[in-house]
């Protein structure tokens, strides 16, 4: 038959095109969905608002997925503003005349057009399509038989070979390896290999095929020229250019150990650095010798200076420097006294921490007496007894009475400027100084800092030395500070004073600060409105030497109350010893102008363990303003206060990383890109928790056009959240601080459908509540797609995804790919550039925007209280790699000791401490066979008592059963392996704790010794084989060459035990064996009871699983065998698994259930629950049950109950399909086809819910039966009916639980 409607199937690339869609019905909605997948440049929708009948269209308009025009179609709509026509027209209007008009106008302008439901007006059709990654299969009937086309698509879906995507990927990889010019070899390989073999090709297989065909080609070439070639006299060397070139890609910002490479900045300028580097830049300029007294293994102040010495970077005088790393111990700093006779003492500096200052103090007095112009740069940081980091000023202030000067700085820019001033004032006045800076926040913060060049510093030194200052009198030293600060201020534009006042010039209430609270105090005072109350703060920049003159000069004469903040180590320090409170009190009492007018002073000391926050500042200000008590009320610290951001133009971003993921370099690269290619201001600050969850890092990025305050202690909501390890979503509430409509990226191999079951409940709850814009990507898959396993590729992926998704905020001065390429290098620069471009292109294809399901909006927040932040307990990654504890074999005496002396051994008893799920121990109360003993299938009903437990379950949930291995088989194996069942194995658990179990317990309850091992077990077992042949065979089966044998063993369910029986020379010690064997996984069974009806029990419906392998060996389902053998009174360990199987929210909504075999279980619970509610006087809707099994006489499960419910009228319709009770098999889909009117009425008109539980095979036919009911009883087209089924899925009114 010749087609009268000739057409050709083509693929049309819509990227960069403008699509015009006309109409507001369901078909128009489908057209929008179709177009969005192809990522066109623009989609315009034209239809009057009152003609929109699709909720999905309204949603697309609200989300700006389309450009919407609220009007009827006009011919001018086919032309864009630049006078160019649109690229495609898709019309879905319910008006024949208008459809013809649209088609004619589009054709006049040569614009391809599709008119829904009118084939002869279409230039192209939308065909039923099967998608599987790269594969697309389209079926066309030229628009005349869409129903047949859809049936064909279903047929293809059911019959397409498995792993077809693998075949496509392998063919593409083969083509790349052969090269585009070697078509003959490529064709030869493809033609000789069947499709099933193409799917199984490994990278090694492909290399061998390429090598073989290349060798064949070379032999042909050699034979054709051999007659004219004298092999002996040839000077030709053959180089095989196909060999692996060893291509590398590495960051220019990090060394091979993953440490940041810090270049020298002798030329100055604006640089992206942290506070440590800023202070080292200045100290190195002044010093020929520097000493480092670190208290941490990494990220200590002075580390960059060590690097500069190795690079032979000269100081500001053009001299070479030396940097010496010292031990922190009693008498530290004595080296300074030793250097006196050998070096210019104004050329020495020290890098230290708060803790390393303490043992130096005895030598400070000698240094002061010797008038040594020394500067010690002190990183104020420490750890409490819980290893939590804090800003530690208290230890530094122990030195306040030694005669050393003390000068403070609080941000990275201040650190640079104050370090410069401190060195100059120390040289000028011959006074040693401690320059104290926030060593916690600034060490972990990257920001743009204006660094002075070494030439400028050298000139400053000459200028300052000419000043006539030599007195060491306190006020003169501070006068010198002001003089030097003014000179530097003229150079930099930044001004500093010994005491700096901020606030109302007529303030009545003032805070005085000098430590780690300074930045928080400044920002809090700026951000909180205290109404008529006038407040201010004084920052004690130069604390020692103390100058009454300079302090009182900045105090407003109007002040009535002053609170003095100071950090102390313990409450004993509140009232004793020197303090800034005493200094200020003496200053007021000594000055005649303040006699009888001295303000009330409040001594507001706080402990080092007290996290200083805006709440503390607010509490102090509140007390200052409200009463006359000069004793600080610590209870005010408990008050909560929200500090608003004063600048909404600043965007907040956070990146969550695990140390195991190696993704933490991405944010450093992003920062460098922003520095080099944008005009934005920004800061980044990292937090490291190396002790919890195997190491977690969060990095905050603040960016905007305005000045960034750098205030990290005020927790603000985030605009962008990137989680590079999706497992963190179950350990932290990562969305707690998300803004409404924040962009959230998850790195995961989960599909969109799997998010429903794998993402934690609270994540989905917060996501819906805040309407986040969720994206998912699989970085490992992207790396595979571009053919690279290099670690740097992952970093490139996360840089690219942030810069793309945040492009509305970030305007780069170059394209994205070039900005990333600048930061990487390889042994082949061209290859490096191509790889990065390929990554960026692949990312654009691979990142998935997730539409949040409506069901997430009805979730309730759980009682689980996950932390929203991590603890700060390190300044860098965990460089310590402790030896992993291995299991230990002990006799029973050790456990006896633990039991007898629990407190001494910190011993607890727990059900299953190895499990993350909450578990319960319940007891069997009934185990009853439902099928006749003569029947070959064993189905049984089992009940468990849950009295005395807090086990609660909801409808539709599953019971996770932790089955035991057969005791007889376990004992046989233990005897064979030479193990004593009563010996005890201690297995490492969380922290430094161990679980203890007997050998028998371990092999019967925990280890899946009779389960099927993966390939890696074969590989691991080979390492223990003493017989070389056994070792070779194990390795061969684990290799590609032995894949067929391995596959056969998998099909025969060869177990761990059988491998150990077979390969007797491979005998891992028990301590290793327990780590090689996978644990027994729980088997989940749908609960067949409603707890409202059975408050003290839970019921299951189970069928035993038995089969024989190819050798006739009988196999059993591990858990069903265990359950079938349980006796009344036996104990079982269980857990609860949530499910999507829930009754409708309204009791009156119809429930249509389709269950096959044990798929009946949840529906028994549904029916019981409806019966319970009806008995409570509630009106309940109709219930329909389609139940299928083989024989009525054998497998009519719960038949008597069902008949009773049906007679009573609760089970409105009972449709039974016993497939083998008649000649022609009858299945549930046949019964459903007979109920078209009923299904249409209940599902569409009465808003009913449909459920299918059981095996997967009837799913397509069941769906067809429902689609057919909508067509025959509802008058819909087949396309509309399918759309309705899809809509029911979206609304979670069409629920499948199949296996």
Concise synopsis of the structure shown:
The chain is α/β, with parallel strands linked by helices. Helices cover 35% and strands 19% of the residues.
Throw out a few tags for this protein.
nine-stranded mixed beta sheet; globular; alpha/beta; 48 strands; Rossmann fold; 7 domains; 35% helix; 19% strand; seven-stranded mixed beta sheet; 44 helices; 1299 residues
Give the number of domains: 7
CATH architecture of the largest domain: 3-Layer(aba) Sandwich
Low-confidence stretches: 215-246, 880-884, 899-907
Distance between the termini: 44 Å
Give me the CATH fold name of the largest domain.
Rossmann fold
How many strands appear in the DSSP assignment?
48
The helical percent reads 25-40%
Largest beta sheet, briefly? 9 strands, mixed
Radius of gyration: 38 Å
Strand content: 15-25%
Structural class, from secondary structure content? alpha/beta
CATH superfamily of the largest domain: Thiamin diphosphate (ThDP)-binding fold, Pyr/PP domains
Average pLDDT metric: 82
Number of helices: 44
């Amino acid at each position: 038959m010749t087609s009268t409607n000739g057409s050709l199937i083509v693929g049309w690339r819509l990227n960069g095109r403008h699509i015009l869609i006309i109409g507001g019905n369901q078909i128009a909605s489908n057209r929008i969905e179709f177009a969005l997948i192809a990522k066109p440049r623009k989609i315009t929708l034209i239809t009057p608002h009152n003609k929109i009948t699709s909720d999905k269209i309204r949603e697309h308009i609200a989300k700006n997925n389309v450009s919407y025009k609220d009007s009827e179609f006009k011919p001018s709509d086919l032309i864009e503003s630049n006078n160019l026509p649109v690229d495609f027209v898709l019309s879905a209007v319910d008006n024949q005349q208008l459809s013809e008009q649209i088609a004619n106008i589009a054709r006049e302008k040569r614009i391809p057009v599709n008119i829904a439901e009118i084939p002869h007006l279409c230039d192209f059709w939308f065909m039923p399509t099967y998608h599987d990654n790269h594969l697309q299969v389209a079926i066309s009937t030229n628009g005349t038989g869409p129903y047949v086309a859809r049936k064909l698509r279903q047929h293809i879906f059911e019959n397409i070979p498995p792993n077809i995507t693998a075949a496509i990927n392998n063919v593409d990889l083969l083509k790349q390896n052969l090269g585009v010019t070697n078509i003959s070899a490529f064709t030869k390989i493809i033609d000789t290999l069947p499709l099933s073999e193409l799917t199984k090709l490994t990278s090694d297989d492909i290399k061998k095929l390429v090598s073989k065909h290349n060798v064949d080609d070379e032999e042909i070439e050699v034979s054709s020229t051999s007659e004219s070639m004298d092999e002996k006299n040839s000077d030709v060397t053959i180089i095989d250019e196909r060999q692996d070139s060893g291509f590398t890609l590495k960051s220019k910002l990090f060394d091979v150990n993953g440490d940041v490479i810090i270049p020298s900045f002798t030329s100055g300028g604006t640089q992206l650095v942290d506070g440590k580097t800023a202070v080292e830049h200045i100290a190195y300029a002044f010093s020929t010798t520097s000493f480092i007294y670190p208290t941490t293994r990494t990220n200590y102040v002075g580390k960059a200076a060590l690097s500069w010495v190795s690079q032979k970077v000269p100081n500001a005088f053009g001299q070479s420097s030396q940097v010496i790393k010292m031990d922190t111990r009693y008498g530290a700093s004595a080296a300074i006294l030793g250097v006196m006779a050998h070096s210019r003492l104004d050329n020495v500096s020290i890098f230290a921490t708060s803790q390393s200052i303490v043992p130096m103090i005895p030598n400070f007095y000698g240094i002061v007496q010797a008038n040594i112009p020394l500067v010690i740069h002190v990183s104020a940081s420490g750890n409490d007894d819980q290893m939590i980091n804090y800003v530690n000023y208290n230890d530094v202030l122990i030195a306040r009475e030694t005669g050393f000067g003390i000068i403070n700085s609080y941000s990275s820019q201040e650190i640079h400027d104050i370090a410069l001033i401190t060195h100059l004032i120390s040289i000028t006045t011959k006074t040693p100084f401690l320059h104290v800076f926030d060593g916690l926040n600034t060490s972990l913060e990257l920001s743009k800092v204006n660094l002075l060049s070494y030439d400028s510093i050298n000139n400053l030194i000459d200028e300052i030395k000419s000043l006539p200052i030599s007195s060491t009198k306190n006020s003169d030293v501070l006068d010198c500070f002001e003089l030097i600060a003014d000179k530097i201020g003229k150079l930099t534009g930044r001004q500093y004073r010994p005491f700096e006042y901020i606030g109302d010039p007529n303030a009545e209430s003032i805070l005085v600060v000098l430590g780690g609270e300074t930045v928080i105090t400044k920002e809090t005072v700026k951000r909180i409105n205290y109404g008529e109350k006038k407040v201010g703060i004084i920052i004690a920049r130069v604390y020692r030497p103390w100058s009454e003159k300079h302090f009182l000069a900045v105090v407003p004469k109007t002040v009535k109350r002053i609170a003095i903040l100071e950090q102390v180590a313990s409450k004993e320090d509140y009232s004793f010893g020197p303090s800034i409170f005493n200094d200020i009190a003496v200053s007021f009492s000594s000055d005649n102008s303040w006699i009888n007018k001295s303000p009330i002073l409040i001594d507001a000391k706080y402990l080092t363990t007290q996290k200083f926050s805006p709440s503390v500042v607010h509490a102090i200000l509140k007390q200052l303003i409200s009463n006359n008590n000069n004793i600080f009320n610590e209870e005010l610290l408990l008050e909560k206060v929200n500090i608003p951001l004063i600048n909404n133009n600043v965007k907040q971003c956070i990146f969550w990383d695990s140390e195991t993921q190696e993704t933490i370099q991405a944010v450093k690269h992003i920062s460098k890109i922003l520095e080099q290619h944008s005009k934005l201001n920004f800061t980044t600050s990292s937090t490291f928790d190396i002790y919890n969850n195997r190491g977690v890092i969060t990095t905050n990025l603040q960016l905007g056009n305005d000045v960034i305050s750098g205030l990290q202690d005020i927790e603000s909501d985030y605009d962008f959240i990137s989680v590079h390890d999706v497992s963190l979503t179950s350990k932290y509430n990562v969305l707690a601080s998300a803004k409404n409509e924040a962009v959230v990226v998850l790195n995961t191999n989960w599909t969109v459908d799997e998010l429903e079951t794998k993402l934690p409940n609270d994540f989905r709850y917060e996501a819906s509540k805040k309407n986040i814009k969720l994206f998912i990507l699989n970085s490992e898959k992207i790396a595979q797609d571009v053919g690279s396993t290099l670690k740097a590729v992952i970093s490139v992926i996360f840089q690219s995804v942030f810069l793309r998704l945040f492009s509305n905020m970030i305007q780069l001065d170059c394209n994205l790919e070039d900005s990333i390429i600048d930061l990487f290098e390889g042994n082949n620069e061209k290859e490096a550039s191509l790889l990065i471009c390929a990554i960026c292109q692949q990312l654009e294809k691979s990142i998935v925007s997730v539409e949040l399901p409506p069901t997430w909006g009805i979730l309730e927040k759980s009682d689980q209280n996950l932390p929203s932040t991590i603890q700060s307990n390190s300044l860098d990654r965990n460089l310590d790699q402790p030896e992993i504890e291995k299991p230990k074999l002990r006799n029973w005496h050790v456990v006896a000791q633990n039991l007898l002396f629990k407190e001494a051994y910190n011993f607890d008893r727990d059900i299953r401490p190895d499990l993350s799920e909450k578990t319960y121990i319940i007891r069997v109360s009934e185990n009853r066979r439902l099928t006749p003993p003569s029947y070959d299938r064993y189905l049984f009903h089992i009940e468990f008592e849950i009295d005395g437990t807090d086990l609660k379950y909801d409808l539709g949930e599953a019971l996770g059963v932790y089955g035991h291995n057969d005791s007889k088989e376990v004992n046989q194996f233990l005897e064979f392996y030479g193990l004593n069942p009563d010996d005890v194995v201690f297995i490492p658990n969380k922290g430094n704790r161990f679980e203890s179990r007997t050998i028998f317990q371990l092999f019967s309850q925990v280890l899946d010794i009779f389960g099927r091992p993966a390939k890696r077990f074969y590989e691991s077992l080979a390492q223990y084989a003493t017989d070389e042949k056994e070792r070779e065979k194990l390795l061969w089966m684990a290799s590609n060459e032995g894949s067929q044998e391995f596959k056969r063993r998998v099909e025969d369910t060869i177990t761990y035990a059988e491998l150990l029986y077979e390969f007797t020379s491979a005998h891992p010690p028990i301590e290793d064996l327990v780590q090689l064997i996978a644990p027994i996984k729980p088997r989940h069974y749908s609960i067949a009871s409603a707890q409202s009806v059975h408050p003290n029990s839970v019921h299951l419906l189970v069928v035993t699983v038995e089969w024989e392998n190819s050798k006739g060996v009988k196999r059993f389902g591990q858990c069903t065998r265990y359950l079938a053998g349980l006796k009344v009174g036996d104990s079982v360990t269980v857990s609860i698994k949530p499910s999507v199987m829930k009754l409708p929210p309204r009791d009156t909504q119809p429930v249509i259930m389709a269950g096959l075999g044990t798929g009946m279980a949840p529906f028994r619970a549904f029916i019981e629950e409806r019966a319970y509610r009806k008995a409570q006087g509630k009106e309940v809707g109709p219930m329909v049950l389609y139940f299928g099994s083989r024989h009525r006489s054998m497998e009519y499960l719960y038949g008597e109950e069902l008949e009773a419910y049906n007679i009573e009228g609760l089970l409105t319709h009972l449709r039974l399909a016993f497939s083998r009770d008649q000649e022609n098999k009858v299945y549930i889909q046949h019964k459903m086809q007979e109920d078209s009117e009923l299904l249409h009425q209940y599902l569409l008109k009465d808003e009913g819910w449909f459920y299918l539980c059981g095996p997967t095979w009837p799913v397509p036919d069941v769906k067809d039966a429902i689609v057919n009911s909508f067509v025959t009883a509802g008058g819909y087209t087949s396309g509309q009916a399918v759309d309705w089924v899809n809509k029911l899925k979206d609304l979670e009114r069409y629920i499948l639980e199949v296996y």
